[in-house]
């Protein structure tokens, strides 16, 4: 198993970061829409608390992993860029950094704008932001602070995140099915990538 990246493909560490973060990030969406559209954000509904906690936990998984993922990207070799124009390469880099921004902004605003009892991760508990010493030290007014953070979280989630994520997926499929290059394959496990190449 190839652990580190090479100039040809991503290694197991980068691949694991990518797919775990992607899965956690995408799963937050059906949970959020189920809570809003089916449960109508009814806090008394039996499923409301477990689902909102799961939504929160998935967001925190993204936030916890994005920093080491960024560090791994910075200090590890990156595979060579796919053939394309300079404009395409610039747009690709902007799209990737836009994804990293989303992976920080969405879970961070979700955490900052959530109150209530601590979340139990089984191995440890996570205190909600308004109950932390930092919040008290900053002397923030929750009634003023929470709506601002909430607006950012919901606006980015509803109007920006979907577009950026779908653009990323569409670009991967475009490279694989139209360009027939290795952009998608090099992020997959090597055995899966080789199987797709053989098709």
What features would you describe in this structure?
The chain is mainly alpha-helical and 199 residues long. 68% of the residues lie in helices and 2% in strands. The protein has a two-stranded antiparallel ribbon. Helix 2 (48-75) packs across helix 3 (86-112) and helix 3 (86-112) packs antiparallel against helix 5 (142-179). The longest helix is centred in the C-terminal third of the chain and has 38 residues, at 142-179. The chain is elongated and about 55 Å long. The chain starts with 11 loop residues before the first helix and ends with a helix.
Integer-rounded radius of gyration = 19 Å
Q: Terminal Cα separation, in Å?
A: 22 Å
Spatial shape: elongated
* Average of per-residue pLDDT values: 90
Please estimate the helix content. 55-70%
Number of H- or I-type helical stretches? 6
Spell out the helices and strands N to C: HHHEEHHH
Structural class: mainly alpha
Described by strand count, sense and barrel closure, the largest sheet is: 2 strands, antiparallel
What's the arrangement of strands in the largest beta sheet? 1-2
Number of strands: 2
Note poorly predicted spans: none
Proportion of strand residues: under 5%
Key words describing this protein structure:
single chain; two-stranded antiparallel ribbon; 6 helices; mainly alpha
Compile the SSE list and pairings:
Blueprint: H1 12-38, H2 48-75, H3 86-112, E1 119-120, E2 125-126, H4 133-138, H5 142-179, H6 190-198
Antiparallel strand pairs: 1-2
Summarize the structure.
The chain has 199 residues and is mainly alpha-helical.
């Amino acid at each position: 198993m190839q652990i580190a990246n090479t100039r040809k493909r991503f290694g197991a560490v980068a691949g694991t970061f990518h797919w775990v973060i992607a899965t956690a990030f995408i799963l937050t969406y059906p949970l959020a829409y189920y809570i809003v559209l089916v449960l109508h954000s009814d806090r008394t509904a039996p499923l409301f608390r477990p689902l909102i906690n799961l939504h929160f936990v998935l967001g925190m998984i993204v936030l916890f992993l994005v920093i080491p993922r960024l560090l791994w990207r910075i200090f590890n070799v990156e595979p060579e860029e796919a053939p394309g124009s300079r404009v395409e390469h610039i747009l690709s880099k902007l799209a990737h950094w836009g994804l990293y921004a989303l992976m920080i902004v969405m879970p961070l605003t979700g955490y900052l704008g959530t109150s209530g009892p601590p979340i139990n991760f089984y191995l440890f508990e996570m205190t909600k932001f308004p109950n932390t010493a930092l919040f008290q030290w900053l002397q923030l007014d929750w009634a003023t602070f929470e709506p601002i953070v909430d607006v950012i979280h919901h606006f980015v989630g509803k109007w920006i995140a979907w577009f950026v994520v779908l653009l990323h997926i569409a670009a991967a499929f475009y490279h694989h099915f139209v360009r027939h290059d290795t952009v998608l394959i090099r992020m997959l496990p090597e055995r899966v990538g080789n199987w797709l190449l053989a098709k």
